[in-house]
Amino acid sequence: MDTLTRPAQEGTAMSARDSGVTLAVHDAPQCGAVNDILARVGDKWSVRVVMSLAEGSQRFNELRRGIPGISQRMLTRTLRGLERDGLVQRTVTPSVPPRVDYELTPLGISLCDPVARLGNWAIANIGAVESARAQFDLKLDHTKL
């Protein structure tokens, strides 16, 4: 990762914010990888599955009952993606029928704190976001007149 000092844009005055600010410049492959990971961990169902598994190992139907609104297909796809990314471990116990349990890996456990913090931030700021949306929508409605 290289660093770059950003010059003032042509035709604009240089502000204190622009002077000497060091920006990280990422190469395209690294940004693509970060985007892929953020897409996985920021996905609505992935967050719900990870937080459900934070309570401990669960079977498929336990997870499905604990996550309202998720379909069997979506839960299957989400678990496969999380397993592929190393966040969830699937354990099959030979029996009739086979028992399948899902649990977080150490990498998955390390995701719980940031996800919980983001969730807490969202809860703490629901009112502010709803107010901003209402103001924006009101302005948008006035421009249509």
Spatial shape: elongated
Number of helical segments with 4 or more residues? 6
Roughly how much helix do the residues carry, as a percent range? 55-70%
The pLDDT mean sits at 84
Count of individual beta strands:
5
The CATH class assignment of the largest domain is: Mainly Alpha
Low-confidence stretches: 1-16
The CATH homologous superfamily of the largest domain is termed: Winged helix-like DNA-binding domain superfamily/Winged helix DNA-binding domain
- State the major sheet: 3 strands, antiparallel
Our estimate of the beta-strand percent is: 15-25%
CATH topology of the largest domain: Arc Repressor Mutant, subunit A
Order of helices and strands: EEHHEHHEEHH
Architecture per CATH nomenclature, i.e. the level-2 architecture of the largest domain: Orthogonal Bundle
Compute the gyration radius: what is it? 22 Å
Number of separate structural domains: 2
**Which sequence of strands runs across the widest sheet?**
3-5-4
Provide an overview of this structure:
With 145 residues, this protein is an alpha+beta fold. It has 2 domains: 1-41, no CATH class; 44-144, Arc Repressor Mutant, subunit A (Orthogonal Bundle), CATH 1.10.10. The protein has helices spanning 28-41, 44-53, 60-66, 72-84, 106-124, 126-144, and strands spanning 2-5, 22-25, 58-59, 88-93, 99-104. The strands form 2 sheets. Strands 3-5-4 form a 3-stranded antiparallel β-sheet. The chain has a two-stranded antiparallel sheet with strand order 1-2. A hairpin with a 5-residue loop joins β4 and β5 (99-104). The chain is elongated, with a radius of gyration of 22 Å. Mean pLDDT is 84; it is low at 1-16.
